[in-house]
């Protein structure tokens, strides 16, 4: 029978049973017709194929629920998973981990270094919750240990008692104590002394041959009475001396290298020194000779060290005298330099400061305007220039005298200082004329500053010898961006000052 015929029979079966043509019913009917026709279909054996992969308990449950199709199997498994306690697996893992850790701790206290090391490694991996690969390697390591472990060493105790391979404690407790005869004690004592004597006195450790011989003596002290021991002892002593000699030669090589480097450094120090006496030249020659020699023993090395130490002592003494002399000169020069620096600072300050008002003088103002101009050209930082001129100042001098005029100038300078910002630069430009460089300020901001100063001047009480002097000020402003150059900006501020004078004084222009 062909597949087409089975399909037709499946359709007729569904019609006869009055079932809907769903995938589930169709699969059930198709598999029934295939089985009836004696044809084995892989699609129809899905339940049996997957059931064989499950545990026996689950297989029994499948029989009870009469699961026949793959869809029913999937629903059954989903339902079973939903009923499971989600913490059950994690609890089991924790319990098993704790059990393995306890076993590893127990193994760690046994008297076997390999097993103890493996137990420590197991506890370490469990502590950090190692991955699958680490656990697989750990499992393999334990398997290898069990495969190659050999307790044959216990048989060495058989002359002294009965060996129980399954109870080490019972074996040890059943051992018969050795007879403490004087001859045995003597041999043991001599053996211990021989082992101490074979240890190299200079070399840091024994070689393999010496280790083997000392192990023989330690394991069986009676070995020293055997005829072959004399030959082995002679060979061991020769090895011990050879080890010490080799170590001494190695130390001498290191010491010789160190001495060579030290000599080179001393020669370099002497060459760079400004002392060229015959004595120093002789020391240099001796050091160069030391560099050509090779140390073959401690005596030569000692002689080299003594020579270098003497050279250092002499050289340091000479250098100390020179340093003391130079130090005195340096101290004197340092004091003189400090005085000159102070004088220079005072002169510099005086060259930049107006003697009367203690504001910047014209020279300093011109330097700072040049700096402001450089910032303007490089970064576009604009600024304003404000020109101040005290009105009718000549009449103050004529009426009250020059001392009164000086007092007015100093008082006005203080008003400018009090109203200026940290980044504003204020100075006396000449006579009764003052100038302020207002950084990062537009024309409106400059007007606020200028009018504030103007009003304070009007309200201020300028008094000289109990006489009140009425003072006012005219101010001209110029914004750098409104002019093609620094010079034209200064001229612009001066022109606005002239406008203020022309329009009646005691005002700010542009208004």
Account of the 3D structure:
The structure is a single chain. The chain is an alpha+beta fold and 511 residues long. It has four domains: 81 residues, no CATH class; 83 residues, no CATH class; 172 residues, no CATH class; 157 residues, Reverse transcriptase/Diguanylate cyclase domain (Alpha-Beta Plaits), CATH 3.30.70.270. 66% of the residues lie in helices and 7% in strands. It has 19 helices and seven strands. The protein has a five-stranded mixed sheet with strand order 2-3-1-6-7, sandwiched between helices. A two-stranded antiparallel ribbon has the order 4-5. Strand 2 and strand 3 form a beta hairpin. The protein is flat, with a radius of gyration of 55 Å. 16% of the residues are buried.
In short:
This protein is of the alpha+beta class and 511 residues long. It contains 19 helices and 7 strands. Strand 4 (462-464) and strand 5 form a beta hairpin.
């Amino acid at each position: 029978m062909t597949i087409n015929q089975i399909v037709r029979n499946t359709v007729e079966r569904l019609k006869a049973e009055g079932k809907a043509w769903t995938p589930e019913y169709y699969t059930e009917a198709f598999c029934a017709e295939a089985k009836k026709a004696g044809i084995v279909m892989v699609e129809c054996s899905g339940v049996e194929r997957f059931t064989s992969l499950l545990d026996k308990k689950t297989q029994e449950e499948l029989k009870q629920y009469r699961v026949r199709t793959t869809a029913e199997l999937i629903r059954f498994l989903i339902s079973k998973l939903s009923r499971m306690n989600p913490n059950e697996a994690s609890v089991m893992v924790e319990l098993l981990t704790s059990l393995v850790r306890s076993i590893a701790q127990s193994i760690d206290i046994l008297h076997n270094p390999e097993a103890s090391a493996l137990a420590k490694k197991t506890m370490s991996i469990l502590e950090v919750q190692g991955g699958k690969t680490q656990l697989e390697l750990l499992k393999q390591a334990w398997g290898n240990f069990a495969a190659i472990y050999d307790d044959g060493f216990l048989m060495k105790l058989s002359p002294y008692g009965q060996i129980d391979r399954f109870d080490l404690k019972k074996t040890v407790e059943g051992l018969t104590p050795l007879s403490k005869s004087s001859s045995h004690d003597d041999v043991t004592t001599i053996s211990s002394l021989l082992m101490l004597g074979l240890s190299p006195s200079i070399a840091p450790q024994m070689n393999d041959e010496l280790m083997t011989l000392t192990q023989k003596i330690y394991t069986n002290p009676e070995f020293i009475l055997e005829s072959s021991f004399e030959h082995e002892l002679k060979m061991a002593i020769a090895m011990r001396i050879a080890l010490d000699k080799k170590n001494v030669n190695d130390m001498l090589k290191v010491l010789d290298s160190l001495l060579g480097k030290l000599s080179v450094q001393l020669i370099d120090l002497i060459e760079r020194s400004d002392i060229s006496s015959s004595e120093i030249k002789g020391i240099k020659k001796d050091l160069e000779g030391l560099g050509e020699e090779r140390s073959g023993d401690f005596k030569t090395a000692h002689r080299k060290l003594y020579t270098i130490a003497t050279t250092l002592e002499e050289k340091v003494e000479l250098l100390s005298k020179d340093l003391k002399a130079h130090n005195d000169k340096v101290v004197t020069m340092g004091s003189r330099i400090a005085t000159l620096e102070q004088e220079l600072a005072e002169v510099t300050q005086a060259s930049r400061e107006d003697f009367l008002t203690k504001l910047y003088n014209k020279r300093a103002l011109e330097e700072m305007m040049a700096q402001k101009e450089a910032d303007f050209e490089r970064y576009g930082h604009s600024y304003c220039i404000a020109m101040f001129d005290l009105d009718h100042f000549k009449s103050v001098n004529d009426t009250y005298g020059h001392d009164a005029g000086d007092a007015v100038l100093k008082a006005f300078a203080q008003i400018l200082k009090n109203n200026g910002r940290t980044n504003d630069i204020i100075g006396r430009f000449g006579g009764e004329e003052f100038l302020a460089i207002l950084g990062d300020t537009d024309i409106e901001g400059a007007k606020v500053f200028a009018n504030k100063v103007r009003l304070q001047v009007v309200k201020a009480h300028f008094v000289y010898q109990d006489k009140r002097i009425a003072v006012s000020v005219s101010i001209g402003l110029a914004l750098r961006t409104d002019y093609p150059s620094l010079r034209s900006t200064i001229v612009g501020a001066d022109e606005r000052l002239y406008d203020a004078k022309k329009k009646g004084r005691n005002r700010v222009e542009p208004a």
